Known about the structure:
Elements: E1 9-12, H1 28-41, E2 45-49, H2 55-67, E3 72-78, H3 81-90, E4 97-104, H4 107-114, H5 118-135, E5 138-144, H6 151-164, E6 168-173, H7 180-193, E7 201-206, H8 213-222, E8 227-230, H9 244-253, H10 269-280, E9 297-298, H11 301-309, E10 328-329, H12 337-346, H13 353-369, H14 375-389, E11 393-401, E12 408-416, E13 419-427, H15 430-441, E14 447-455, E15 464-472, E16 475-483, H16 486-508
Helix pairs in contact: 1-2, 1-10, 2-3, 3-5, 5-6, 6-7, 7-8, 11-12, 13-14, 14-16, 15-16
Binding site for Mn(2+): 17, 205, 207, 241
Enzyme class: transferase
Keywords: Acyltransferase, Amino-acid biosynthesis, Branched-chain amino acid biosynthesis, Cytoplasm, Leucine biosynthesis, Manganese, Metal-binding, Transferase
Amino acid sequence: xxxxxxxxxxxxxTLRDGEQxxxxxxxxxxxxxxxxxxDRMGVDVIEAGFPIASNGDFEAVAEIARRAENATxxxxxxxxxxxxxxxxxxxxxxxxxxxxxFVSTSPxxxxxxxxxxxxxxxxxxxxxxxxxxxxxxxxEWSAMDATRTPIDYLCRAVETAIKAGATTINLPDTVGxxxxxxxxxxxxxxxxxxxxxxxxxxxxxxxxxxxxAVANSLAGVAGGARQIECTINGxxxxxxxxxxxxxxxxxxxxxxxLPYGTGVESTMxxxxxxxxxxxxxxxxxxxxxIVGKNAFAHESGIHQDGMLKHNETYEIMTPASVGVTxxxxxxxxxxxxxxxxxxxxALGYELGENALQDAFTRFKDLADRKKHVYDEDIEALxxxxxxxxxxxxxxxxxxVIAGTMGPQSAxxxxxxDGVHTTVQSTGNGPVDAIFNAVCKVMPxxxxxxxxxxxAVTEGTDAQAxxxxxxxEGDKIATARAADPDTLVASAKAxxxxxxxxxxxxxxxxxxxxxxx
Length: 516
Ligand SMILES: CC(=O)SCCNC(=O)CCNC(=O)[C@H](O)C(C)(C)COP(=O)(O)OP(=O)(O)OC[C@H]1O[C@@H](n2cnc3c(N)ncnc32)[C@H](O)[C@@H]1OP(=O)(O)O
Ligand SMILES: CC(C)C(=O)C(=O)O
Ligand SMILES: [Mg+2]
């Protein structure tokens, strides 16, 4: 695949450079799982590890090589015969195997890390690429720290690698130093000057030290590269590598100016991101492009209003195109009426204009005080509004006799429209006794569909929160009440639910709303 084609090879190095990120080590099984997903989603080359690094790395590369059905599997090797032999052994059983060998070319690396002269490194390139090529057909050679290498020497090194049989030439921005203009020009110059450059694929490999990894990779493609090395979630050494999901979507969304396709199924990107995040225990930052939790979330009223009118007002790609079910309109202090009304509709409420305005004001007050406003908060706010608007009965006092001696009984005083009524009742347990007492004052035909108690906090002095759901024909009323005394919370929740039911009935027949 030379520069004249419009297809870019996606080379994923999550399992090699990604794993070099401090703390991101994956187990053998996790690596197999990630590799299987990369293979299925259409990644062209999976760099599965650095076989000389450890027996574990060797085994992982070898097993991934055996299992991969579509992708080429690459193993990394320094410019050292033992490394190359080990990488060759690891990818031996792959349907398509690659040895990726690299050596430094920059003056600073030659002087301080390699302690070799330029001529010595040229000899090493010649010998090691030849060795690799004798083991496999597909050999990638990388000039480590290419972007800090004088162009004349870089061209000489690349020419040596091509002559020795390299089929892919990678020019990494190892330390994340390049800018897009530099990086694109480097590829243009090398491709123009090196004999045989038109017979190989040039590759980018960018690090994100200046936050330019994706931009540099795309500039490299504009300069003639046709392979991009990248990682899921941008994982990698130091600030990471170019993020695969960003590269794939940039090429997909901006095909008008970057007319190069990939074979990656973009709807699997979110899944891959979650898998790698779980395997490495590295959380994905909320505002990460493409796969972050907020990538398709809108909180501000103006954006939400636009999104409700037309989804292209504030989204340049659909959530479905990257495997996210839907856009989310997050309710918060920046939300407006349009989104609030839409949320209420989704939650099953249809309020008149005045009630809507009232609920919206209360919602804004709540959002000013609370960081996250959940659907349940909005439900409670509207339910509370409905209930308090029709809150005709209130629990004034409750005395319960419970325990083993039985029968359990409850003495309950309710305030209904300002009139205090006291009743007594027995029951099969204290809660039953309370509910029977309530029914004496407020008879109804509703079925108790849910009675649930849970502790709001920990400890024996915790507040008990009781949830009740009553169903009467097609009318449903739910209510919650909290009190340090579970039985008092039960009485309050039950009365609140009946209040709501009465209000619902009352909308049809106000006189019959409460039959005390
Ligand atoms: C830019 C990159 O991402 S490069 C890849 C980096 N990844 C890793 O290093 C992860 C895996 N690494 C390892 O497990 C180990 O470092 C090993 C197994 C590769 C080597 O371990 P050791 O033999 O103990 O060497 P150590 O790590 O201390 O030093 C690296 C040696 O490799 C040499 N070296 C580094 N790169 C290359 C290269 N491309 N070709 C040849 N030699 C190299 C260094 O000069 C140094 O040699 P020296 O010991 O003669 O000075
Ligand atoms: C091994 C090489 C390709 C590398 O990771 C780098 O230069 O960043
Ligand atoms: Mg790297």
